Amino acid sequence: MAKKKTIYSRILLKVTGEGLAGKQGYGIEREAMLSYAGEIAEVRRLGVEIAIVVGGGNIFRGVSRAADGMDRVSADYIGMLATVINALAFQNALESLGVYTRVMSAIQMHEVAEPYIRRRAIRHLEKGRVVIFAAGTGNPYFTTDTAAALRAVEIKASAILKATRVDGVYDSDPKVHPNAKMFTELSYMEVIRRRLKVMDSTSISMCMDNKIPIIVFNFTKRGNLKKLISGQCIGTVVK
């Protein structure tokens, strides 16, 4: 596949589970899933190697905290399994658009996904397949944000693109404060010091240590992913 002009050769796209729920707020909304898949397919055609880490909050709210008094470890494992559901749905949507994919799970389940092996993941990317990483890190107490940072480091991604439903990172919640200010650029230390809700502190520290930029952008606006890949200033850059 001939490559067109892009600023990133290999990216890790972090997609929240809530984003897949769309307007219904839970489960998987077909329109939202196909919209995301279409954006990814378009960027893949530019020759960019794409890995995805998907959250599980739309299926189960236990990824970052115990739900309804449930033991934290049990809740986190349920959350990891929720990400596998999302990954398989993502795979189906992408392949319906002619994009070759592989789902790789940190928790082994051979009937539905390959086990995560770093060298195999890199080889899939080199062959032009979109790789979807499921089940987080495979360990409780670690978020899917941490999984995204870890996988980005392991596959030597050029950047982490965090797909959200807002335009970038704000100094306060723009839904509550109409005058909230959006940042165009932040340092890793600013994010940690100001406790901005970009990714958790473990993820930010890992990206800082390995010099991987994080771009937070609105994935619900069509064309934003392609604009980012082409070098346009979209969202907030943390570096």
What's the count of strands? 11
The whole-number mean of residue pLDDT values reads: 92
Question: How many separate structural domains?
Answer: 1
Terminal Cα separation, in Å? 30 Å
Oligomeric form of this entry? single chain
Low-confidence stretches: none
Q: Please identify the top-level CATH class.
A: Alpha Beta
H/E element string? Answer: EHHEHEEHEHEEEEHHEHE
In helices, the fraction of residues equals 25-40%
| Order of neighbouring strands in the sheet with most strands | 4-3-5-2-1-6-10-11-9
Count of alpha and pi helical runs: 8
User: Any idea what the CATH architecture is?
Assistant: 3-Layer(aba) Sandwich
> β content, as a range?
15-25%
CATH topology category name: Carbamate kinase
Structure description:
By secondary structure, the chain is an alpha/beta fold. The chain is built from eight helices and eleven strands.
Task: List key phrases describing it.
239 residues, alpha/beta, Carbamate kinase, nine-stranded mixed beta sheet, 8 helices, 36% helix
Quick summary of this structure?
The chain has helices at 17-21, 30-44, 72-95, 118-126, 144-155, 188-193, 201-210, 224-229, and strands at 10-15, 49-54, 101-105, 114-115, 130-134, 159-164, 169-170, 182-183, 185-186, 214-218, 236-238. With 239 residues, it is of the alpha/beta class.
List the helices and strands and how they pair.
Elements: E1 10-15, H1 17-21, H2 30-44, E2 49-54, H3 72-95, E3 101-105, E4 114-115, H4 118-126, E5 130-134, H5 144-155, E6 159-164, E7 169-170, E8 182-183, E9 185-186, H6 188-193, H7 201-210, E10 214-218, H8 224-229, E11 236-238
